[in-house]
Write a structure and sequence with these properties.
Blueprint (H helix, E strand, L loop, with lengths): L18 E6 L4 H16 L7 E7 L5 H12 L1 H4 L2 H7 L2 E5 L4 H18 L5 E5 L6 H10 L13 E5 L7 H14 L5 E4 L6 H11 L13 E9 L8 H4 L3 H19 L8 H13 L12 E7 L1 E3 L2 E3 L17 E6 L11 E6 L6 E8 L6 H6 L7 E7 L3 E9 L7 E9 L11 H11 L5 E2 L1 H19 L8 E5 L9 H8 L2
Parallel strand pairs: 1-2, 1-4, 2-3, 4-5, 5-6, 7-12, 8-18
Antiparallel strand pairs: 6-17, 7-13, 8-11, 9-10, 11-12, 13-14, 14-15, 15-16
Helix pairs in contact: 1-13, 6-7, 7-14, 10-11, 10-14, 11-14
The structure holds NADP nicotinamide-adenine-dinucleotide phosphate (NAP).
NADP nicotinamide-adenine-dinucleotide phosphate (NAP) binds next to α1.
Length: about 500
């Protein structure tokens, strides 16, 4: 039975301060596929502040009208009949920009004019939806134009949203943070990891720390291993330029997989406050056992070959447009990690992510230990499956707990049953997608769902030596295993995959 609690303490539109959202790279994929749909859905649900303005910026010479048409065409069928779109689009504008000082001075004056016309009070959010090498350039230019200062050159606030990737190793992440900090204070910086805003991911904290029955079991005495899986059916799609230089470890592990691990392993914070939570997260990354392939740490890297998915033949990674035909870039990785503390000592955390696997699935698997005395094995000759808890983000947002029961009937035999909880069951309110959630939090000035500087740098500090070991390995073929697209990854990872998917 469900009991509802009045709980939505999200700031309503009245509590959100008016602001201008400036999107750099507004002609690109992220803007039309994620940012504008998210902002539009917030508008439709009444989650945008009043008043607001959105200014798309880019080198592409577009008028405001042409920008709206471009977005309208790209947003597709779902918007075609929507009157709301036209009302929303009244707040959209485009400002052609060159990435130089003069252009940013003109932008500053343009924003001041919008402030006067729309009463947006000098509050600005700058979203960097551009290739990552432009992040420091734009931060410098914003600083130079007086657009970064909080409450100084204008009355309102200034915030900057940085999309992933946040650096490509420890050195570049530290350098990027240093450039950002020359102009923006840490509390003005919002480093997005939209995985963190997925409902089931956020719910992991509530599930762990608002229920008394799981926490006593959440440790090495009761948990045999933890699996964190982000399987993708898609290949490299149109991102080959970026992906071939990055690979799965940078694309998925440094950010999303690390966040899932941290949420699963962290200690309860003393308060449900941003800094208290970020402190606990940082502690987990600091507790990760040093990872050295030389010293026997387990990693399996793979790259998809030609294969079949859903009855359709798909090309090998090396035959994808824009990929080097001899590319050593991994599209699959399995890492076995250990968190060296009292709670988790010697419990393996299997982190797995790959492209062109049979289906998209994102899940955290908590595998409990077997019962200590195998009472029924001797009587029934049956194995007793240990309990398993699944926290699924995709294809369903669900939590599932498996346990043993007796089969109905005269004879005694065991059967494994699953209790399912579907996240949206019985909930009639509107759901916010992950990008909308992070944008809303940025407008509200809430940092809870964003990476803090130390978290990013600790995560890179852990992963950079692993990347170096893999990339500078004298015989990379020893590490890179090929797998047919549509299979569950390379041969050396199959046993672990079977373990994690045998539910
Ligand atoms: N797409 C996604 O789903 C996604 C997801 C997570 C993170 N991200 C990150 O978000 C950022 C934007 O992604 P995206 O896919 O939208 O990128 P994109 O389509 O490749 O580029 C966005 C825009 O940036 C501008 N641009 C490109 N190269 C430039 C250059 N050398 N100098 C100045 N401007 C340049 C272009 O606009 P103009 O030519 O009009 O200036 C382009 O339309 C990237 O850092 C990406 O890693 C993207």
């Amino acid at each position: 039975m469900e009991q509802l609690h009045a709980c939505d303490d999200r700031p309503g539109p009245a509590a959100l301060e008016p602001c201008i959202i400036v999107i750099f790279g507004a002609s690109g994929d992220l803007t039309s596929r994620k940012l504008i749909p998210a902002l539009f859905s917030m508008y439709v649900q009444g989650n945008m502040p009043g008043p607001f303005a959105i200014v798309g910026c880019g080198r592409t010479p577009l008028t405001g009208a042409a920008f709206k048409e471009l977005l309208f065409a790209r947003l597709g069928e779902r918007l075609r009949d929507s009157r709301a779109w036209h009302a929303f689009a009244d707040n959209l504008d485009y400002f052609p920009i060159a990435y130089d000082r003069q252009s940013f001075q003109v932008l500053a004056r343009h924003l001041e004019q919008i402030d006067r016309e729309k009463q947006t009070r000098g509050n600005r959010i700058f979203d960097l939806a551009v290739p990552p090498d432009l992040y420091p350039v734009i931060a410098e230019l914003l600083g130079g134009a007086g657009l970064a200062a909080q409450y100084q050159t204008f009355p309102g606030w200034s915030r900057i949203i940085v999309e992933k990737p946040f650096g490509r190793d420890l050195e570049t992440a530290v350098a990027l943070n240093a450039t950002l900090h020359e102009h923006f204070a840490e509390e003005q910086i919002y480093r997005i990891d939209h995985y963190l805003a997925k409902e089931t991911v956020q719910n992991t904290l509530i599930f762990r720390f608002a229920n008394s029955i799981f926490e006593p079991l959440w440790n090495r005495h009761h948990i045999e291993y933890v699996g964190i899986v982000a399987a993708e059916e898609i290949g490299v799609e149109s991102r080959s330029g970026y992906y071939d230089n990055s690979g799965v470890l940078r694309d998925m592990f440094q950010n999303h997989m690390m966040q899932l691990l941290v949420l699963t392993a962290m200690e309860p914070p003393a308060r449900f406050e941003t800094d208290a939570i970020q402190d606990e997260k940082a502690k987990v990354i600091r507790s990760l056992r040093d990872f050295s392939i030389e010293q026997g740490s387990r990693i399996c890297l793979g790259q998809y070959g030609q294969g079949e998915i859903g009855g359709r033949s798909v090309p090998a990674y090396r035959s994808e447009a824009g990929v080097d035909p001899r590319s050593p870039t991994p599209t699959f990785a399995l890492m076995e990690l250990y968190v060296d503390n009292w709670r988790w000592q010697d419990v393996p955390f299997y982190l797995i992510s790959g492209k062109r696997l049979p289906r998209k699935e994102t899940r955290i698997i908590i595998q409990f230990r077997e019962v200590p005395h195998r009472l029924f094995r001797e009587v029934l000759g049956q194995n007793i499956n240990a309990n398993r808890l699944l926290i699924e983000t995709y294809p369903e947002e669900a939590i599932r707990l498996t346990f043993q029961t007796k089969n109905p009937g005269a004879s005694i035999c065991l059967r494994t049953m699953t209790m399912d909880f579907f996240y949206h069951q019985h909930y009639k309110g509107a759901a916010l997608d992950a990008y909308a959630r992070v944008l809303l939090d940025c407008i509200a000035g809430d940092h809870m769902l964003f990476w803090r500087q130390d978290g990013i740098e600790l995560s890179w500090a852990f992963l950079t030596p692993v990347l170096q070991e893999c990339e500078e390995c004298p015989s990379p073929e020893r590490l890179l295993h090929f797998y047919p697209a549509g299979s569950w990854g390379p041969e050396p990872a199959r046993k672990t995959m079977a373990l994690l998917f045998g539910d």
